[in-house]
Amino acid sequence: MQLDVTIPQTRQDDVLSALRDCRIFHFAGHGLTHLSDPSKSSLILSDGSLTVASLFELNLHNRTPLLAYLSACGTGEIKHDELIDEALHLISACQLAGFRHVIGTLWKVNDQSCVEAATMTYEWMKRGNMSDDSVAEGLHQASRHLRNQWNLESAARTSKRMAAVRAEGPAAMEQARSSQATIRNPRTGDLYEDPPLYWVPYVHFGI
User: Whole-prediction pTM value?
Assistant: First the structure.
C-alpha cells in the first residue's frame, strides 16, 4: 500500500508512544476478554497488556487518527451478563481515545480469516484514497467476499456428502431425508458439519 510503516517493540511504552503518532494502528495478535471486569480486557503484549482502561486514558483527539484495526479475538466482546449493554470493550476504548474508525471482532477468529479480511479491507481503502468512507466499505467488501467463499466451499462439501450418502444405498438416503438430516436443509443434520463462520464477527465502529 506504500504506507510509511513503523513496527514498534511489543512493549506497553513503545506501543503507547506509537499510538500517539500514527494514522493507522494495526494490531495483529491476541486479545483477552476479562470475564468480570471489561475495563481489564486487553491486547496482549510481550511485557503485559494494553487494557481498555489504559486506552481510555489516551487522548488523541487533537490528531483524530484514521483507523485502529484490532485483528485479535473478541475485541468488541463483553462476557459479563450485567454489563452486556455497556460499550466497555477495546473497540469503544480506541474510539473514545480519538480514532475516527475502529475495526474489531465480536468473538473468536482464526489467523487465516484475519489476514484475508485485513488484506482486502486495506486494498479497498487504498483504491478509495484512504477516505473515511473507504474504511467501512472495505470491511463490507471483505466480509462479503469471505462469506461468498464460505458458501461456495460449503456447497461443494455438501455435494460430496450427498454423493457419499447415495453410494451407501436407499437406507442411507431415507435417513438423509428424515427430520434430522433433510436434503433441502442439511444444516439440521449430521451431513452438514462446516467450520465456524469466521467471516461473521468483524465489525466497524466509526463515522
Answer: 0.83
Phi first, then psi, for residue 50 (nearest 5°) are -105, 105
Of 104, 194, 182, the closest CA to residue 149 belongs to 194
Calculate the alpha carbon distances from 183 to 5, 113, 164, 189, 197 in Å: 51, 29, 13, 9, 21
Checking DSSP bridges between strand 202-206 and strand 101-105, what pairing results, if any? antiparallel
Half-sphere exposure of 154 (CA within 13 A, CB side): 16
Q: Which of 103, 115, 93 is nearest to 66 (CA)?
A: 103
Would you place residue 190 in the very low, low, confident or very high pLDDT band (cuts 50, 70, 90)? very low
The candidate with the shortest Cα–Cα distance to 102, out of 194, 10, 202, 178, is 202
